[in-house]
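Contributing new records

If you add data, match the layout below exactly. Sequence lines come first and carry their own label; structure lines follow with theirs. Keep one chain per record. Anything else will be rejected by the validation script.
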Amino acid sequence: MENNQKIAVVTGASAGIGEACARALAADGWTVVLAARRLERLEKIAAEIGGRAVQLDVTDDQAVEKFSAELGACDLLVNNAGGARGLDAIEDANLEDWRWMYDTNVLGTLRMTKALMPALLEANGLVINIGSVAGRVPYVGGAGYNAAKHGVAAMSRVLRLETHDKPLRVCEIDPGRVETDFSLLRFKGDEERARQVYEGKLNLQAEDIGEAVRWVASLPAHVNIDTMLIMPADQV
């Protein structure tokens, strides 16, 4: 890659918000490294936007270390990989679902940020963590995902405190209800239950969050957007 190219890494880039972020950044002149587990989908998107596809599971320590070692330069990290599993009450909580949510949302964000920190500091870079309104507002059945996204929020704020005097900016973007495969994954393939989450509502689209990421990443180095809450007009 040319030394003057801006390099963005987007995790969870094979669909939904991650794909939208990759497309928006590429259209704004970034060279995008798309990272996710579903390589075939990544390669299709990467071919369309002139990016590079890398198969990556953010819950795998060795895979993240290998990715970091092979990446080289990095100006922007979008920690988007995450998700929810289940909508059980705490008394019925599935511990494996909770472990997956914490490992993917919280530790996945930690692994990527820690691994790419030297390159980001070298580049006077930017970290954008995709959080959720669930990291601000608890709801019945959401304890596992609430806990994970509260963890992402706390990590984002501490990282901002720890690096405010270093060449790194940190932003947390918290979307509300976005119509993607999120609920399909949460309900483990139950299409009817997933459809009911969005039916009759004014939903955000993945492209709305992609545009927010593009805008934050386009700002000059002296501007830091600490947090951004993005809601559909009918959600409060």
